[in-house]
Each structure stands twice: as structure tokens, then as C-alpha cells.
Amino acid sequence: MKVAERVKKASQLKDWVADRVFRLKGEGAFEVLAKAQKLEKQGREIIHLEIGEPDFDTPINVKEKAIQAIQDGSTHYVPSAGIDELREAVCVYLRKSRGIEVFPEEVVITPGAKPVIFLSFLLLLEEEDEVIYPDPGFPAYSSIIEFIGAKAVPLRLREENGFRVDVDELRSLITSKTKMIVINSPHNPTGSVLSEEDIEAIARLAQEEDLLVFTDEVYSEIIYDQKHVSILQFPGMKERTVMLDAFSKSFAMTGWRLGYAVLPEEWARFLSLLVTNSNSCTCTFTQIAGVEALLNGEESVQVMAQEFRRRRDFMEKRIAQIEGIKIIKPQGAFYFFPNITSFGLSSKELADYLLKEGGVAVLPGTSFGHYGEGYLRISFANSLENLARAMDKMEEALNKLTKRGGRK
Ligand SMILES: Cc1ncc(COP(=O)(O)O)c(C=O)c1O
User: Fold this and answer.
1) What pLDDT band is residue 408 in, cutting at 50, 70 and 90?
2) What CATH number is given to the structural domain containing 244?
3) Is 271 within a domain?
4) Which of 22, 49, 68, 273 is the most buried (most CB within 10 A)?
């Protein structure tokens, strides 16, 4: 296409496409994957450590339930809020795993975790509202807050604080317009986990300041050195909290698209209405498989979490041998978030270099916000063998950089 035509097309796009769409952000993982696949097409071998999904297969009993459900004819519309069996199973699961008393009317089933972010932000936020969210953090939070026209206020997660929320810093960001705080523990991309005291302090602050809390707990089952704590466990929090959980990470079900929100019953009715208007309902046989995952999936979850722990421990020792990289041991999820400032390149430059020079795909910390500069996200959702090879290649590429005088 000629330049003049391209310019005309771009300005037409601005005329036709709504302004809010230009406020949406993409996701680094998909962008790096596309670059890596391009190199693979040229015959290069790439080890994928940019991925944010378990490399395990969905548990066999869960797959069998879905197949059976299709054969039994569970292939039609169901209620927007989800099937009763799954809403009830969520209550049983949360009581057992988190000691939380929740009723089926307070549960809304969605096609994955992301619709809970999208639809519950639409449900709760007005244009003039401010929302405090973690930076670095999962990019969909600020993307959707800004898409709606509300103000996204980043709360910097600092390395010196183990990438946990500093409650005093959080307090200092609150204004008369603040409506909601977003928390995510275990945390993507840093692997940090909020302590019980952190969460209690956030709960107290939310009540003192009369704020809503959005708690993203999709990594609740992938936690290493402590038990997962939910802010919903604290008195007075149920009436001001939306909790998000999903099957994607816990049960290796990213492609099934199954998640849920737990929220006050009156809000749940409107959230269901948003589901009616967007998805109608979540896939029926996926929901039936979800019941099996929640009620009979514990063993598979433990096997997966155990393997992630082995990989984390391996990676901790191996990365420590690479000159110039500083890490904090992740307490949950399956990511390292090393400090790479000593190489004197931006996160993006270093991630590009590692992909081209070392054949290792990782994400720049800036894929997770402004305060991700100086870091990389390395996923260990890959086999021990591939992780070992990737670390060798990374070390070699980084040593080359150091020799060329690239390190401060
Ligand atoms: C913190 C966090 N929340 C939500 C999601 C979205 O999960 P889903 O694929 O179920 O929509 C992800 C996926 O990477 C995540 O890391």
C-alpha cells in the first residue's frame, strides 16, 4: 500500500473506531510469542520462557467429564450466571481451600478470568473514579480501567520490599476519588505473595477509607512456602470485594476458558446481566468439567505444584550463577522477575537481544507497566531439561554482552 493510502486509512480509522479503543493495551506475551514464532519459521530453535500458562496437560478425569458431557448432549445454552452444580462446587471448594463461606448466588461463572476483570470493572467503575493497581502487574487491569475512562493509579511494587504491597505507600495514593484497590497474590509477574499481615492491613485500610477491593487469586494453588490467604477471609470484606479465580492456572485449563467471580449477591445479578449481554453464558460442557476439577482435582494440583517447586528451586540456584543478574525467590506463581539493570540495556532491548542472540524468549518487565523497567519476566512453565538449556544459552549470551563492555 502506498504511503498516502496508509495515512488516509489510519486517519479514517481514528474517525470510525471509538476513542476508548485506542486506550486498550496489548499483552507482551502474545507480542514476544509472535516474534519468536517468526524466528522459528526461519529455522531457529527458540526456548519459550515467555509463556504464562502451565505446560501440563489438563487432568484426565476433567477431560473425560467434558467428553461425556458432550456425548450426553450438554451442548446448549445454560443460565448466564453459570450452572447450579458449578456455582455450588465453587462454594464447596472455597470453604475447603480458603475457609470462606460463600453462597451460590454470590458466584458468577465466566469464560476465563479476563471477563471477570472486564465485566466487573464495567460494573463498578465510573469515569471519574480512581483505581489503585499494582505496577508491575497484570496488564489487563490498567488497560480496562483506562478503556472505561477511569483513572489507573499505579502502586509501585518495589524489589526492596520483595515486590509486596507497601501499605503506607498504598495509603498515600488514596484520594477522595479513589474507589477501588486491585491486589494480586500470588503475583504475576514477580512471584511475590502477600503475607497475612499485609492482607489484613489492606482490609483494614479498605474499610477505613470505604473502598472496594478487587482480588485476583488465579495463582492461589501455585504457592510454595505458605498457605494462600484471601482478603475475603477477613471480617467485613465480603460486602466490598470482588474475588477472581479461574481454572486456567490451577488445573492447566487455559484453553477451556473457565473462571468465576465471587461478589455480593446484588452485584452478582448485574454481573450476570453483563454476561447475558456479552457471552450469553459460559460453555456448558466446560462448566461440567469444572465441577470435576474443583471437587476431584486436588491430587493433580498437588503434583503440578510440586513440579513447579522443583523447577523454582533449580532456577534459583542456576540463575544465581549467572553474572550480573539479581533475583528474589518467588513464593508463588511460576515466574522469576530478575533485576537486569547491570547490563545497561532497557528491559526490551535485553529481551530482544536474548531472543535473537540466545534463542530464549522472555518478557521485558515493561510488559507489566512502567515500573517493570530494569527487569525481565522468566516463566518456568517449561520442562527442567528445557530450563537448563535455556539458562546455559542465556548465560552464554549475557557473558558475551559483558565482554563487549555492555555491563555497568
Ligand atoms: C494475574 C492474572 N490474572 C488473570 C489472568 C487471565 O487468566 P485467563 O486466561 O483465565 O483469562 C492471568 C493470565 O495470565 C493472570 O496472570
Assistant:
1) low
2) 3.40.640.10
3) yes
4) 49
Ligand 1 nearest atom to the CA of residue 115, by list position: 11
CATH number at residue 18: 3.90.1150.10
Is residue 8 assigned to a domain?
yes
Mean pLDDT for the chain overall: 95
Domain housing 353: 3-57+300-397
Q: What does the pLDDT average to over 89-110?
A: 97
**Could you tell which of 33, 114, 117, 121 is best to mutate to test the pocket of ligand 1, judged by most ligand atoms within 8 Å of the CB?**
114
113 Cβ inside 6 Å of ligand 1: yes
Residue among 271, 269, 312, 254 at smallest CA distance from 113: 254
Helix (H, G, I), strand (E, B) or coil at 357: helix
Cis peptide before 189 (omega within 30 of 0): yes
- Asked if the peptide bond before residue 54 counts as cis, ω within 30 degrees of 0, the response is no
Give the model confidence (pLDDT) of 158-176 as tens digits. 999 999 999 999 999 999 9
* Distance, CA of 219 to CA of 216 (rounded, Å): 8
In this structure, the answer to whether residues 135 and 210 fall within a common structural domain is: yes
Hey, how many other C-beta atoms are within 10 angstroms of the C-beta on 139? 21
pLDDT digits (tens, 9 = 90+) for 230-258: 999 999 999 999 999 999 999 999 999 99
Strand partners, 245: 260
Q: What is the pTM of this model?
A: 0.95
Domain count, the chain: 2
pLDDT at position 11 is 75
Q: Are 274 and 330 contained in the same domain?
A: no
Specify whether 134 is located in the same domain as 168.
Answer: yes
Last residue of a domain, one of 257, 276, 297: 297
184 lines ligand 1 (CB under 6 A): yes
